[in-house]
Design brief:
Elements (H helix, E strand, L loop, with lengths): L1 H33 L10 H6 L4 H4 L14 H8 L7 H11 L20 H6 L5 H4 L16 H9 L3 H7 L2 H4 L2
Length: about 180
């Protein structure tokens, strides 16, 4: 009898705890992305895109690591010592360079700690940045284009060729 009672109450408690955890995680994710859109240095993705600069030039880490990365001051200064060097935002950028300080960029998109994500397999599968991040090349202020939650990712994974689906929807693919 005691074991049955314990088992009887265990399932609803576990479901409630998981639901509460998901709710807290979702709220944390929203807060972590919603307050971080104001950048310290005025940066225009449209101007850089119109100049023909591809996403992976500045966010080169996406091709070789788990995160896309944020360009270093050195990478920015490589062009801006010459290009638009007298413009106020570039002057501010050059100030970071002269002070030997990193630019305190604020993240726009971030995954929760318990989610494993790597850009590498997505780039390898032929997805472009716009698939998940929207048309950043037209955004003066970058905003998350989609709500990157588990269901959204799974819908894309489930739409892949049948031979890949079992691996792509396995929990361990995204939760290590």
């Amino acid at each position: 009898m005691i074991n049955r009672m314990g088992t009887r109450w265990r399932w609803p408690v576990m479901v409630s705890v998981l639901f509460l955890f998901a709710l807290v995680a979702a709220r944390s994710y929203q807060e972590s992305t919603s307050n971080q859109r104001d950048q310290r240095v005025a940066f225009s993705h449209p101007i850089h895109a119109q100049a023909g600069i591809q996403c992976l030039y500045c966010h080169s880490e996406a091709a070789r690591s788990q995160i896309a990365g944020i360009p270093s001051v050195q990478k920015c200064v490589g062009c801006h010592q010459v290009i638009a060097a007298d413009e106020p935002p570039v002057q501010e950028l050059l100030g970071y360079w002269e002070r030997d300080e990193p630019i305190p960029w604020r993240r726009v998109t971030e995954q929760l700690d318990f989610v494993y994500f790597s850009h590498q397999p997505h780039l390898g599968a032929g997805l472009n940045c716009e698939t998940c991040h929207g048309n950043v090349a037209q955004m003066e202020v970058v905003e998350p284009a989609v709500d990157m939650h588990m269901g959204w990712c799974l819908r894309c994974h489930e739409a892949q060729p049948a031979i890949k689906i079992a691996r792509l929807v396995d929990c361990i693919t995204c939760h290590k």
